[in-house]
């Protein structure tokens, strides 16, 4: 296996493993789950800023709901189905029907729209064993599922908001500007031709208004509607489709979603399906391979490894760790018997971006000697070291230099429009 394969990196950094007893599933180790939670909390914060309300929907739902939505027909071979007497249930392969149920639970008015829901939805899909590939293709995964219920005249604003969100998120994870594609009606689809005509026109116009010039992908849309897809290019030049926003007239119709319009009548909302990362597991694989395990400072499970030069400085090394942790930095302490040079190499091989050595001079001066994985070194007073590293701990430390967010909500990359 290639050393730059995410499975090799995951093993080297002690992030996760997979085994035969759980095919297509992941055993997350402490460091891996720390990375997972950092990504999840980051996305949660961005979604909250974008006006989304987080919800949670059941894992196991009656097959009748999946039949009503059309997923039972489209994904029958990929669904895990269970029998309970005369009723049949299925683990959810996606979260959208559940979000419609939350929308339908209350009387809705045009004043409530747009209504935005987000969920870290744990999904299960039966993938053939030969198709499984580390974190890239699994049977159990979590999607950053989000759905917007809105009117047709709100679609353009929501798409522009999403494009701006993607620009910020991908830049902060260290990726260059994305490429966009417009996927239109597939041969096998639900809904009327009139619905598809309207959906494609709305989404196409919204893409242009957001400053996109997407590549056309005829026949690649979802079974319920057209979609915009956003692909990242990694450091090896490979393209990965991650983000998507899809326009849907079909599910609101099939599942009876409606709201009171301005005239007091009943109307169907437009449903926008969106995901920033897609599968979090798959995104972590892409991220690990893109950075070859050298994650940005803000994402490293441990950001600073502290070690005394000899045992006499161990008490001061503990004070240094405490000072970093008090500032919200993730610090670890190496009191092992190895020589300092070996500790520095081991920490950087383990993905820790900064090594803080403390000897007699540092202890006497209340300082630390910082060593970066690129070879850079600096001896700083402890308070200054804490301040500098705390600044780097913000996701925007690198990303904000690459993306400008104009007042109109569209995204401008360094070098041109998205």
Describe the structure.
There is one protein chain. The protein has 418 residues and is of the alpha+beta class. The chain has two domains: 6-291, Bira Bifunctional Protein, Domain 2 (BirA Bifunctional Protein, domain 2, 2-Layer Sandwich); 304-392, Anticodon-binding domain (Rossmann fold, 3-Layer(aba) Sandwich). 34% of the residues lie in helices and 25% in strands. It contains 14 helices and 23 strands. The strands form six sheets. The chain has an eight-stranded mixed beta sheet, with helices on both faces. The two termini are 36 Å apart. The model is unreliable at 400-418 (pLDDT under 50).
Strand content: 15-25%
What is the CATH first-level class name of the largest domain? Alpha Beta
Q: Which sheet architecture does the biggest sheet show? A: 8 strands, mixed
Q: Low-confidence runs (pLDDT<50, min 5 residues)?
A: 400-418
Using the coordinates shown, work out and report the CATH topology of the largest domain. Answer: BirA Bifunctional Protein, domain 2
Q: Structural class of the secondary structure composition?
A: alpha+beta
* Name given to the CATH architecture of the largest domain: 2-Layer Sandwich
Helix content: 25-40%
Shape: elongated
How many DSSP E strands?
23
Per CATH, the superfamily of the largest domain is Bira Bifunctional Protein, Domain 2
């Amino acid at each position: 296996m290639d050393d730059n394969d995410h499975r090799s990196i995951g093993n080297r950094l002690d992030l996760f493993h997979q085994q035969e007893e759980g095919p297509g599933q992941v055993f997350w180790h402490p460091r891996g789950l720390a990375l997972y939670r950092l990504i999840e909390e980051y996305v949660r914060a961005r979604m909250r800023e974008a006006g989304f309300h987080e919800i949670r929907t059941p894992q196991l739902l009656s097959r009748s709901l999946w039949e009503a939505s059309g997923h039972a027909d489209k994904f029958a071979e990929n669904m895990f189905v269970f029998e309970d007497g005369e009723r049949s249930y299925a683990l959810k392969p996606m979260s959208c029907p559940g979000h419609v149920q939350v929308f339908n639970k209350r009387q809705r008015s045009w004043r409530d729209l747009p209504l935005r829901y987000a969920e870290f939805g744990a999904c299960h899909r039966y993938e053939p064993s030969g198709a499984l590939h580390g974190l890239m293709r699994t049977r159990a995964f979590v999607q950053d599922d989000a759905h917007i219920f809105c009117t047709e005249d709100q679609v353009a604003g929501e798409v522009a908001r999403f494009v701006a969100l993607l620009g910020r998120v991908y830049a902060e994870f260290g990726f260059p500007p994305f490429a966009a594609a417009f996927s239109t009606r597939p041969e096998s689809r639900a809904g009327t031709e009139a619905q598809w005509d309207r959906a494609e026109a709305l989404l196409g116009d919204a893409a242009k208004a957001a400053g996109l010039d997407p590549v056309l992908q005829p026949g690649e849309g979802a079974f319920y509607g057209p979609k915009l897809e956003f692909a990242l290019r990694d450091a090896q030049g490979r393209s990965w489709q991650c983000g998507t926003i899809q326009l849907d007239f079909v599910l609101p119709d099939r599942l009876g979603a409606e709201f009171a319009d301005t005239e007091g009548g009943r109307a169907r909302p437009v449903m926008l399906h969106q995901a920033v990362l897609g599968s979090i597991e798959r995104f972590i694989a892409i991220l690990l391979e893109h950075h070859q395990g050298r994650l940005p400072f803000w994402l490293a499970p441990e950001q600073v490894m502290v070690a005394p030069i000899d045992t006499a400085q161990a008490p001061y090394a503990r004070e240094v760790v405490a000072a970093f942790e008090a500032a919200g930095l993730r610090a670890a302490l190496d009191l092992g018997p190895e020589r300092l040079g070996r500790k520095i190499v081991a920490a950087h091989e383990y993905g820790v971006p900064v090594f803080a050595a403390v000897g007699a001079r540092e202890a006497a001066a209340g300082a630390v000697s910082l060593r970066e994985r690129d070879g850079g070194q600096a001896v700083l007073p402890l308070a200054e070291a804490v301040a500098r590293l705390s600044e780097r701990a913000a996701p925007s430390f690198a990303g904000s230099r690459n993306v400008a967010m104009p007042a109109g909500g569209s995204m401008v990359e360094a070098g041109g429009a998205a």
